[in-house]
Amino acid sequence: MELKGQNILVTGASQGIGAAVARELLGQGGRIIAHYNKNREAAESLAKAHPDSKVATLAANLENPAETEELFRKSLEALGHLDALVLNAGVFLPHPPEMATADWWQVWRKTLAINLDACGLLTKLALEHFKMRGGGRLVYIGSRAAFRGETEDFLGYAASKGGLTSLARSVARAFGRDRIVAFTIAPGFTRTEMAETFIRQKGEKVLQDEIALPNLTVPGDIAPLVAFMCSGKMDHATGTTVDMNAGSYMH
C-alpha cells in the first residue's frame, strides 16, 4: 500500500475513524490534509507527531457550503494537488419522532447538511480537479444503516448514508472513463467518541449481542482498507461497498 507522493484530504480527521485513517495514510507514506471542525488541538497533535510537513490541518464547518468550498481550495493551496479524498466527517444526532416538528426538522437538516450535502459539494469539486489531472479516488465512509435501516431516533442518519452510497456508485459509473474511481465503506457500530454516548445509555452488551465477532469494531480496523483503496490496487472494484460491521449485517 505504497502512498508515497500521494496527497489526500481526510475530513473529520481529528478523532475516531478519521484520525485512524489519517495515521494509517501517513504510515504508508502519504501526505494529508487533516480537516477538523472544532477539535483543533487533536488535529494539531497529529501534525506535531509528523513534523516533516506531511500533515496540514484545516478547519471548516461542513454545515456551511462556503466553508466547505474553502476547505477544498485551501487544500489545493497547501499541497498543490489532491490524489484522493476520504469523506469521513459525519454526525449521529438523535431526533426521535416525539420531538417538536421544528426541532426534529432542525436536526434532520443539520444531519443531511454535514453527512451528505457537504460530501456532494466536495465530490463536485474533486471531479473537476481529478478530470483535469487525469484521475483520482474518492472513498466514502458510509454505514450499514444505508442497507438495514436505523432506529426511530436516527432516521436522518440512515437517509444521509443511503444517499452517500448512491452518490459513490453514481460517481463510479459516470466517471470511470476519466480514471476516477469511488468506493464506500459501510461500518457497523464502531467504538468512537461519537458512539460512547450510545454505549453509556444502552450498555455494551446490547451491541455485543448483535455482532458475529467477539469484539466491537474499532477505527483501526477500518483504516487499512481506506489505505488500500487509495493505493490504486483496488481500482477495478470501483463502485464497491465493503461491509465492515463485524458480521452484524451482510447484504
What does this structure look like?
With 251 residues, the chain is of the alpha/beta class. It is built from nine helices and seven strands, in the order E-H-E-H-E-H-E-H-E-H-H-E-H-H-H-E. The chain has a seven-stranded parallel beta sheet with strand order 3-2-1-4-5-6-7, sandwiched between helices. Helix 1 (16-27) packs across helix 9 and helix 4 (101-133) runs parallel beside helix 6 (155-175).
Keywords:
251 residues; single chain; globular; seven-stranded parallel sheet; 7 strands; alpha/beta
How are the SSEs placed, and which strands pair?
Blueprint (H helix, E strand, L loop, with lengths): L6 E4 L5 H12 L3 E6 L3 H9 L6 E5 L5 H15 L4 E4 L13 H33 L2 E6 L3 H4 L6 H21 L4 E8 L5 H10 L1 H5 L10 H13 L9 E4 L7
Parallel strand pairs: 1-2, 1-4, 2-3, 4-5, 5-6, 6-7
Q: What's the overall geometry?
A: globular
Taking all Cα atoms into account, the compactness measure Rg is: 17 Å
Stretches where pLDDT is under 50 for at least 5 consecutive residues are none
Overall pLDDT confidence: 93
Strand arrangement, largest sheet?
A: 3-2-1-4-5-6-7
Short overview:
The chain has 251 residues and is an alpha/beta fold. The protein is built from 9 helices and 7 strands. The longest helix is centred in the middle third of the chain and has 33 residues, at 101-133.
